[in-house]
Amino acid sequence: MGDYFERIIDLDVTSAEAGALAEHMVEWMVQRRWILRETSSEAMYSLGVDEGYLPGPQWSEITQEWGEDWIPAPVAVIVGRHAHYSGQGEIEPAAAICPHCQAGTVIIDYPQRWEADPAVWQPFSDAIEAWKHTGAGAATCPACTIASPITAWGWADDFALGTLAVDFWGWPPLTEDFIAEFGRRLGHRIAHHTGKF
Q1: What's the confidence (pLDDT) of residue 2?
Q2: Which of 25, 96, 169, 196 is the most exposed place for a label (fewest CB within 10 A)?
Q3: In sequence order, what are the residues at sequence separation of 6 or more whose Cβ sits closer than 8 angstroms to the Cβ of residue 37?
Q4: How many other CB atoms are found less than 10 A from the CB of residue 182?
Q5: d(CA 56, CA 4)
Q6: What average pLDDT score do residues 153-177 get?
Q7: Which of 105-109, 126-130, 185-189, 193-197 has the lowest mean pLDDT?
């Protein structure tokens, strides 16, 4: 068993703008009656968030049909600089894509290795930690030797960095229309994850 989540991450919003944008998105979902202003900590496992918004009476409008008796868990709104992992657990991405030259740096050489190469991952990990603490971090591409902001890099395995994420815990799969509309309202690039705790 386990608890499942679906997550939408804003890849572009700044730390300074994330709080206001989060409130805008919550208000939109409350007005549509997809969530309530009432919160709960039950079945909530998001990083750095103790409570989430309870589902509203019209929650099923934005999900696939899973039966009338299904009761989803809360929706967590996560504001702050975080690394987000899809799937189960916090496994490093298999590769990083340079935003300048598009070369891929292999971090986990499947199937020869099942863990990140520490020497390859360390510069990226250091840049991510710097970004989390200061808002700025850069990694140098081994291929073109140009340093780029860590938030500009592309990642394998749906790994994502962002300052605003929304976790739907225990909901049936969200519809493609809802995910697309959510992204339009954010006004930025998004990543979409599914995973298990």
Answers
A1: 55
A2: 196
A3: 30, 53
A4: 19
A5: 19
A6: 95
A7: 193-197
- The arithmetic mean of pLDDT across residues 45-54, rounded, is 90
Question: How much is the pLDDT for 45?
Answer: 86
**Whose structure tokens read 């300048």?**
100
Nearest to 120 by CA among 151, 143, 90: 143
Contact 59, 35 (CB under 8 A): yes
Query: CA 196, CA 2: separation in Å to the nearest integer?
Result: 6
pLDDT tens for residues 23-41?
Answer: 999 999 999 999 999 999 9
For 88-102, write each residue's pLDDT tens digit: 667 899 999 999 999
